[in-house]
Specification:
The complex is a heterodimer. Helix content of chain A is 49%, strand content 12%. By secondary structure, chain A is of the alpha/beta class. In chain A, strands 1, 2, 3, 4, 5 and 10 form a 6-stranded mixed sheet that branches. Chain A has a 4-stranded mixed sheet with strand order 7-8-6-9. In chain A, β1, α2 and β2 form a beta-alpha-beta unit. In chain A, α9 packs across α19. The N terminus of chain A is likely disordered. By secondary structure, chain B is an all-alpha fold. Chain B has a single domain, classed as MetI-like (MetI-like fold, Orthogonal Bundle), CATH 1.10.3720.10. Helices cover 71% and strands 2% of the residues of chain B. Chain B is built from 13 helices and 2 strands. Chain B is globular. The mean pLDDT of chain B is 89. Classes of the chains: A alpha/beta, B mainly alpha. Chains A and B meet through α1, α3, α12, α19 and α20 of A and α1 and α12 of B.
């Protein structure tokens, strides 16, 4: 046994050490294309499509090779990249979900801002070309884009058209306000064929973050953290408490079914069991593939007693961050790749394939000219919803340090109320104070 | 036990023979543990650029957090539930399997099989069986008037992780109990039978006491299992939710450290967990081992 370990040590570790000692230093060679590593947090068809886009770019020129590595989900990709950064071998490009924005902005030395990258490569970006509701989330106060918005989506209100007809509801006029959703849910449940009226995915994103922007109320002070790290969370006011209380009541009445913290609620809608569903606009393709009923989508519902609602919805999804510590020629290659990604044709194709929002006006126009929105009007619904009004301080975006943890705190609060452990007011009060502790901690590490 | 001294002529040889073990312990236990201890004293940003010494602040923060205290309670309740249910069921199954003479290998194989399933795969399997959206069992339960939804009902979630963890663990317990029973001399049981003891009496008065070393060993192993190795199951089934009902100590370490990127806080929690486990095992040796007859 002991001998086995010793032999194993000799067999495994010694050659490894020899191998590591012999590994050659990277040599820069003009004729060999430079490799650009891109880590993504999307899998399946979307991940494959990104690999195809990189392959197309590689075929277009011979100086750079973009290699795409799937790193699990967004959180895993971000954690791996951070670990890689600490070890000094970070990727060139990293896809980060919107919640990670604050983490990267808080430590500016680890990133290469995209506007700087493009300007240095002689390909400056014109912010007017981009949908401001998309880019604002990833820009600094001067409107400079710090990361490249790649796949953004916004929650919309899906509904089962067949179920609406069956329950005697007008399928061309989906409910617009929460009281109307309640009525529709009651009528749908009354048919006896549905286990609940509505459900939603990503509760914090759809029912707290987007909900707040849509009702023009702040999630945190200082323009939701955009103006400084000394922001404080304030989502325990009447508007949010009223909504959470309504969800608790509707759950008790059987009108609403909770479907988990992430995207797990999807099958409830696609199996035809729950006929109304608030989910990402990028969920369209998946729903269309699995649902055997007709469905449509409308704007998110709002509370008519809240002044300023509906405002505009905010985005979620991923953006591409360029990591620091790489060489000048590599950055030039990244800039070329980004220029390729934001060309109207590539953008429009990606938008139409994935259901993510177009990031440039040119790609939006091109898709319209190609008749895309006549075929699938749902995608236009999403764009109209984020551009419904000029964004206010409350609806531009969110920038909190430790946001991944704050999101968990928000979910703890919502679940605390929905499990009946505490009142919505107490649940949100507690979430606000726990979240603020995290913000203060982050402020300390930023200084 | 009589001591036996081996005397080496060569003074260097014993150290050389010890070396692999010592190196392994140093490399895979002492070194990471020291790192965790050190990291627990600092607060740093995700990328490790700014690093501030904060003393015991990370520990204070964890122990003051009511949710962390709750995760300790959850862990204890979880460990007792899993250890209790698996040991009871495994004892029952092995006492039956021990009496089967024909084709016992088939029954044994079936009972042991779950142990060969990777915890993550087991988690996925239970997830699909009980998923409120597509689960076969959750649909079946509707006929009994139970609206199964472990995403929002804490009791459902807690029951589900206990079920999944125990299901896997029964095989391990079964193996040891069966081995223990087979090593009990038949003569003891037979002489009790001749004296007129019923099968139940024979079990409780002879077999069970003789199994006490096995029971004690399994108790400790099951506790350690629930403390550490149930992580994939919880991750797959509930992610600690709803409302932290299934967030055990080890799951919180993962969530705060690897998802939340709070390395200092997470390291402090892992030091607390280490101390906690050492205490629990020490208490078991102190108070439970007394009742064990070797």
């Amino acid at each position: 046994m002991r001998k086995g370990i010793f032999v194993g040590f000799l067999v495994l570790v010694v050659p490894l050490m020899v191998f590591m000692a012999c590994a050659p230093e990277a040599v820069v060679d003009e004729d060999v294309p430079l490799e650009i590593q891109m880590w993504i947090g999307l899998g399946g068809e979307l991940g494959q499509r990104i690999e195809e886009m990189a392959a197309e770019f590689n075929a277009m020129q011979d100086r750079y090779i973009v290699s795409v590595v799937e790193q699990g989900d967004y959180e895993e990709a971000m954690t791996s990249a951070i670990a890689a950064y600490r070890a000094g071998n970070q990727p060139h490009i990293l896809q980060v979900y919107e919640v990670g924005t604050g983490t990267f902005m808080g430590t500016r030395q680890v990133i290469k801002p995209v506007y700087e990258l493009m300007a240095e490569a002689g390909m400056p970006m014109n912010p007017d070309d981009y949908l401001s509701q998309v880019t604002a989330y990833y820009s600094d106060l001067e409107g400079n884009m710090l990361s490249f918005p790649f796949n953004s989506s916004t929650p919309i209100f899906y509904y089962n058209v067949d179920a609406f007809v069956e329950a005697g509801l007008d399928p061309d006029n989906p409910p617009q306000t929460w009281p109307e959703v309640e009525e529709a849910a009651r009528a749908l449940v009354a048919t006896g064929n549905y286990s609940a009226g509505f459900t939603f995915q990503w509760p914090s994103w759809t029912q707290m973050e987007t909900f707040s922007a849509w009702h023009d109320v702040p999630l945190g002070t200082r323009a939701n953290g955009m103006l400084g790290w000394d922001t404080e969370l304030v989502f325990n006011d009447d508007v949010r408490v009223q909504h959470l209380q309504a969800l608790v009541d509707w759950q008790a009445e059987g009108l609403f079914q909770y479907g988990g913290r992430r995207g797990d609620a999807g099958p409830l809608f696609t199996s035809g069991d729950v006929p109304m569903y608030i989910a990402s606009s990028a969920a369209y393709a998946g729903i269309a593939r699995t649902a055997d009923f007709e469905f449509s989508a409308g704007f998110l519902p709002y509370w008519p007693n809240v002044e300023g609602a509906p405002q505009n919805s905010i985005i979620g999804g991923g953006s591409l961050w360029v990591m620091g510590g790489h060489t000048e020629p590599e950055y030039e290659g990244i800039a070329e790749f980004f220029a390729y990604l934001s060309s109207p044709e590539v953008q429009a194709e990606w938008h139409q394939f994935s259901g993510y929002l177009p990031i440039t006006y040119a790609a939006w126009d091109l898709s319209r000219d190609q008749g895309f929105y006549d075929r699938i009007p749902i995608h236009n619904t999403a764009i109209e919803q984020i551009t419904l009004n000029e964004p206010t301080e409350n609806s531009r975006g969110l920038r909190f340090g430790m946001f991944p943890q704050i999101r968990n705190v928000i979910l703890d609060g919502m679940e605390g109320a929905l499990t009946g452990e505490m009142t919505p007011q107490r649940a949100l009060d507690q979430a606000v104070s726990r979240g603020n502790e995290l913000l203060r901690e982050f402020e300390q590490t930023v200084r | 036990m009589v001591g036996k001294r081996v005397i080496f002529k060569n003074k260097g040889l014993p150290y050389l023979l010890m070396a692999p073990e010592v190196i392994l312990v140093l490399l895979f236990f002492i070194f990471p543990a020291t790192q965790a201890l050190l990291q627990a004293l600092f607060r740093e940003d995700a990328f490790g650029i700014s690093r501030v010494f904060v003393g015991l602040d990370n520990f204070r923060r964890a122990l003051r957090d009511p949710l962390y205290v709750r995760s300790i309670q959850t862990t204890i309740l979880f460990a007792i539930s899993v250890a209790g249910s698996t040991m009871a069921i495994a004892l029952f199954l092995s006492s039956i399997a021990n009496n089967i003479t024909k084709r016992s290998i088939i029954y044994k194989t079936i009972i042991i099989a779950p142990y060969a399933v990777a915890p993550l795969v087991a988690g996925i399997m239970w997830f699909f069986l009980f998923s409120p959206a597509v689960g076969v069992i959750s649909y079946g339960l509707r006929d009994f008037g139970i609206r199964w939804n472990h995403t929002i009902v804490p009791g459902h979630a807690f029951f589900l992780v206990i079920l999944a963890a125990s299901w896997q663990r029964i095989a391990y317990n079964f193996l040891f109990y069966l081995g223990g029973m087979q090593s009990i001399p038949d003569s003891l049981v037979e002489s009790a039978a001749i004296d007129g003891a019923s099968p139940v009496t024979r079990f409780w008065r002879i077999v069970f006491p003789l199994l006490s070393p096995t029971t004690f060993f399994l108790l400790i192993m099951n506790f350690i299992y629930t403390f550490f190795e149930t992580f994939p199951i919880i991750h797959q089934l509930t992610q600690g939710g709803p409302s932290n009902a299934t967030a055990t100590m080890v799951y919180r370490i993962y969530r705060d450290g690897f998802r939340g990127l709070d390395f200092g806080g997470s390291a402090a929690q892992s030091v607390i967990l280490m101390a906690f486990v050492v205490t629990v095992v020490a208490l078991q040796f102190r108070f439970v081992e007394r009742k064990v007859v070797y």
